[in-house]
Every structure is written in structure tokens, then in C-alpha cells.
Amino acid sequence: QVQLVESGGGLVQPGGSLRLSCAVSGVTSYYYAIGWFRQAPGKEREGVACISSSDDSTSYADSVKGRFTISRDNAKNTVYLQMNRLKFEDTAVYYCALDPRVCPVVLGTTPIPWHYLEHWGQGTLVTVSS
User: Fold this and answer.
1) pLDDT for 71-105, tens place per residue?
2) Contact by Cβ (8 Å): 12, 127
3) In percent, how much of the chain has pLDDT > 70?
4) 60/70 Cα distance (integer angstroms)
5) Least confident of 38-42, 88-92, 108-112
6) In DSSP terms, which residues pair with 56 in a beta bridge?
7) Can you name the residues that pair with 96 across neighbouring β-strands?
8) Which of 31, 35, 56 is closest to 119 using CA atoms?
9) Residue 29 pLDDT > 90
10) Which of 52, 79, 99, 129 is deepest in the core (most CB within 10 A)?
């Protein structure tokens, strides 16, 4: 079955960088859409970035645009989230999700709620603190 495993979280100072990884297994094709979400304490899970299945086009939430970059390495079946110029408000548990509908959910252009997406990882904690 499809499994997603996130890694790369940790403690970082404001202005610092981290790279998160989402290792994907159990898929039979490179053509899958992946999204990154995050959930801060006491807040709703929100979409951060996604990469499409068809042409690897990427999309970002306004709050991270210009600071975060999503990419994939098909040889490693891994999707990355490079996070630069981190801010206190980026502190959250970060999750990756695999589902054909993930990009509209990340961008909020569909009424489909995030918990309808099919495959999720267990999350990795990012703490931005001085």
C-alpha cells in the first residue's frame, strides 16, 4: 500500500532554513501529486505547497510564497520542501499528502476538505525559535 514518511524537521532560528523530505513507497508510477500541509497548535491544518502529477508545476500558499520550494526526485521517490527565511509562525507539524486532488485542496480552490485526501504521512515537527 501507499506509504508516506516525512523527515527533516527540527529546531531552527528565525531566518534559518530546513529541508523536509517525504519518501513515497507503494506507488507504481512517478505521476502523482503531492502536497505539503502544516498544523500549528490549536489551528486548522492548512495547505502550504503542492507539485502536480502531470507537469511538475508547483503552487504555494501566499504565506510561504518566495520562501518555500517544493520539488521531487523521481529516482528516490521523494518530494522535498525547502524552507528558507523561516519565521516564528512557520512553527507547526508538517505533513505530506498524496492524492490526485491535493493541489486544489492546498490552494483552497475546492470545497473538498483536507481530511478527505487519501494518503498521509505521520508528520514532522518544525519549531522556529530563538
Assistant:
1) 999 889 999 999 999 999 999 999 999 998 999 99
2) yes
3) 99
4) 9
5) 108-112
6) none
7) 36
8) 35
9) no
10) 79
Question: Could you give the C-alpha distances from 106 to 11, 27, 83, 115, in angstroms and in order?
Answer: 25, 21, 17, 12
Sheet holding 68-73, edge to edge: 3-7, 18-25, 78-83, 68-73
Distances in Å between the Cα of 129 and the Cα atoms of 6, 87, 99, 103 are 21, 8, 32, 30
Name the one residue in this structure whose C-alpha cell is 520562501: 67
